[in-house]
Amino acid sequence: MIGESDHGRLVTVYRNNLDIPNIPPAPPTNLSAEVTGHKAHLTWSASSDAETISASGLNYNLYIGSTPGATDILSPMALPLSNGYRLLPARGHIQTLSATKVLPDGNYYWAVQAIDTAFAGSEFSTESSFVIGAPEISPITNQSTPENQTITTISFNITDTNTSPCSFNLTLTSSNETLIPLQNISYTCNNNQYTLTITPASNQTGTSMIAIIAQDADTYSSTTTFELNVLPVFSEDQDISLTGVSNGSVAFGDYDNDGDLDILMTGSGIAKIYRNTGGSFSEDSAIALPSVYSSSVAFGDYDNDGDLDILIAGNAVSGKIARIYRNTGGSFSEDTTIDLPGVYHGSVNFGDNDNDGDLDILIAGDSDSGKIAKIYRNSDGSFSEYTPVNLPGVDYSATSFGDYDNDGDLDMLLTGETNSGNIAKLYQNSGGMLTEVPGTNFIGVSDASVA
């Protein structure tokens, strides 16, 4: 204390003899530097202090150096840096949680301390760094691609005051090289427009963080990263619970005409329909179908009344069956007027073989009379075998209709086990007649699936 007293001029030092210690604040955290041109905007999170009621009562002090641990750019007036001891009892020179500095090109290292109302300084934060004059890479959003598909649409630019376009030294890294091997990442550059080409490893899915490190002519560098998700083409919907079956068959079809696909499932001695309600499925227990195994099923509107009927074949309690169940407003009843040969280890399909506007039936499998493959033509809702078509009898069969030659009628693929071995044959439809297409050289298979 210096001044005029009643007794003359006075210079006196008074000691604070209170024995309550002042605990310095905690050091700041979450240091961040955003560089734009030669301007660095530095930010950090507020510190805490036991004696300061509000964090807003703290102020801050920082240092900046051109090498780690140096203070040659901005001195903190606090030494040693290891404990942040303040060399003067005063507030810090920063009253907020940020500071902006304009600096020449270079590498910079910085840290910040908190100062409480008693002018005690915290330890300095963990030192951070930034670069002025480093190349600026335009941001890249996170990307996704289906598995087994190359992505070629990732583009970015790099700007720098001392390096010409497309002259940067680029290093590319992948955090998951099993998914994205380094040799599967490449780039091209045209007029400073860089484009990445990334090919995920075959049959791999997951996530990798891709980093692009750009170094300019002055050896300053910057890095940008993005996440690449390689998605499975199909993934199990684990919210859907269905009965497990074997030796069966399944088909999608909107049997209740509500605009979404329901499920028909047979096998292991069951036959059930699961109704789709907003993407979830529940068994429609009001529908009674014959329980079968070694079965095959198909949806089709055989009576042209606008809803899907059911064709079901397999081994039931009563023996081999092949039956049609007519849809009447979402419930089903057997059409007992239709007589089809029962089969199991077979395949059944609806298809308009003769292009007359109604669905005919293809039946293949093991019947009471042996292995068969036959076409049954639809005539106003009744069916009769179309004997001019002569197909090899098969069991353990799979069949499919499709217009392979684009002539407007349905051709047929037939596989299975004949009495002389496995076959896989393509039949061309000409006016309802099916003749084998020579030279296809398909490998014969049985107990298979075709589409």
TrEMBL record:
The UniProt record lists the keyword Signal: yes
The UniProt record lists the keyword Transmembrane: no
Species this protein is from: Candidatus Magnetoglobus multicellularis str. Araruama
Entry keywords, A to Z: Signal
UniProt-listed InterPro entries: FG-GAP (IPR013517), FN3_sf (IPR036116), Ig-like_fold (IPR013783), Integrin_alpha_N (IPR028994)
Annotated Gene3D superfamilies: Immunoglobulins, Integrin alpha, N-terminal
Domain of life from the UniProt record: Bacteria
SUPFAM superfamilies: Fibronectin type III, Integrin alpha N-terminal domain
Record's protein name: Fibronectin type-III domain-containing protein
